[in-house]
């Protein structure tokens, strides 16, 4: 077994892969360390170079960029690994938040680890954590499911979540949020749910209530922005039931 400290010390020309979290909305949420890393690496691998350019321009960072997104990561990852072996340092960023959380990162990180290249996390914002800690639902135990399957396996996933005792965290797009909530009501019942959108942005909105009430609230206007859905688990429902019955 090779530790990262040992691998970092072997091979004087080996670069470092930095996995850099960037703001999910408000550009002031970036860390000083992230700005420093982005300012000093040789190249930035960005999910969308246009989006990342807005952030770099805001902090007056001038660095070359390469695209790294889900459809090209199979070919782009080896190119980045080659640069790292040549001694270049690479910062990997997604459109927003932490790379690897429902965003591309796994392929190049796995290859770097397998080849003994140091991989350094630069922590920062993640949309689901920001929403979870203000949800009012239990945060001591939770499961992050990301985006639900769109077709194949969707019903099976709901069946699995029916017995989940932990708080469940999902991501959803604006054009599917109403459908997903309706299916939650159908398959999982009228549980407490929190729906958050546009976290840290100008139009940040957090809606709390039973599933049926949140569906009604979202029906008042056209859904916009990416959503985080936080659903109470069966443990919380049982506690509520015990309280209501005087137990």
List the topology elements.
Layout: H1 4-9, E1 17-20, H2 32-40, E2 43-46, H3 49-58, E3 65-67, H4 73-85, E4 90-93, H5 106-114, E5 119-122, H6 127-132, E6 142-147, H7 154-162, E7 167-172, H8 177-188, E8 192-197, E9 205-210, H9 211-218, E10 227-231, H10 234-244
Parallel strand pairs: 1-4, 1-5, 2-3, 2-4, 6-7
Antiparallel strand pairs: 7-10, 8-9, 8-10
Q: pLDDT below 50 for ≥5 consecutive residues: which ranges?
A: 5-12
Radius of gyration: 21 Å
Annotated CATH topology of the largest domain: Cobalt-precorrin-4 Transmethylase, domain 1
Q: Give the strand tally.
A: 10
CATH superfamily of the largest domain: Tetrapyrrole methylase, N-terminal domain
C-alpha termini separation: 52 Å
Structural class: alpha/beta
Give the proportion of residues in helices: 25-40%
User: What is the overall silhouette?
Assistant: elongated
Strand neighbour order, sheet with most strands: 3-2-4-1-5
Taking the sheet with the most strands, its summary is: 5 strands, parallel
Order of helices and strands: HEHEHEHEHEHEHEHEEHEH
Could you walk me through the main structural features you see in this protein, from its secondary elements to its overall organization?
This protein is α/β, with parallel strands linked by helices and about 250 residues long. The protein has two domains: about 5-125, Cobalt-precorrin-4 Transmethylase, domain 1 (3-Layer(aba) Sandwich), CATH 3.40.1010.10; about 130-245, 2-Layer Sandwich (Methyltransferase, Cobalt-precorrin-4 Transmethylase, Domain 2). Helix content is about 40%, strand content about 20%. It contains ten helices and ten strands. It has helices at about 5-10, 30-40, 50-60, 75-85, 105-115, 125-130, 155-160, 175-190, 210-220, 235-245; strands at about 15-20, 45, 65, 90-95, 120, 140-145, 165-170, 190-195, 205-210, 225-230. The chain has a five-stranded parallel beta sheet with strand order 3-2-4-1-5, sandwiched between helices. It has a five-stranded mixed beta sheet with strand order 6-7-10-8-9. α3 links the parallel β2 (about 45) and β3 (about 65). α4 packs parallel to α5 (about 105-115) and α7 (about 155-160) packs across α8 (about 175-190). The longest helix is centred in the N-terminal third of the chain and has 13 residues, at about 75-85. The chain starts with a helix and ends with a helix.
């Amino acid at each position: 077994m090779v530790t990262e400290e040992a691998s970092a010390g072997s091979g004087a020309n080996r670069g470092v892969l930095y996995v850099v979290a960037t703001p999910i909305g408000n550009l002031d949420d970036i860390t000083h360390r992230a700005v420093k890393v982005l300012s000093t690496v040789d190249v930035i691998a960005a999910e969308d170079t246009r989006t990342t350019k807005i952030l770099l321009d805001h902090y007056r960072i001038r660095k070359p960029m390469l695209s790294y997104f889900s459809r090209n990561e199979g070919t782009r990852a080896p190119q980045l690994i080659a640069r790292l072996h040549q001694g270049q340092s690479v910062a990997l960023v997604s459109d927003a938040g932490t790379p690897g959380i429902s965003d591309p990162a796994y392929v190049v990180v796995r290859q770097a680890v397998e080849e003994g290249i140091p991989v350094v996390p630069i922590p920062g914002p993640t949309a689901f954590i920001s929403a979870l800690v203000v949800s009012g639902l239990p945060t001591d135990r939770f499961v992050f499911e990301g985006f639900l399957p769109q077709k194949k396996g969707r019903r099976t996933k709901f069946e699995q979540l029916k017995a989940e005792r932990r708080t469940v965290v999902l991501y959803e797009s604006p054009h599917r949020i109403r459908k997903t909530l309706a299916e939650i009501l159908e398959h999982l019942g009228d549980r407490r749910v929190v729906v958050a959108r546009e976290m840290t942005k100008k139009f940040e909105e957090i809606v709390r209530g039973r599933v049926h009430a949140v569906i009604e609230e979202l029906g008042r206007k056209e859904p916009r922005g990416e959503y985080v859905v936080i659903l109470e688990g069966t443990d919380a429902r049982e506690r509520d039931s015990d309280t209501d019955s005087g137990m």
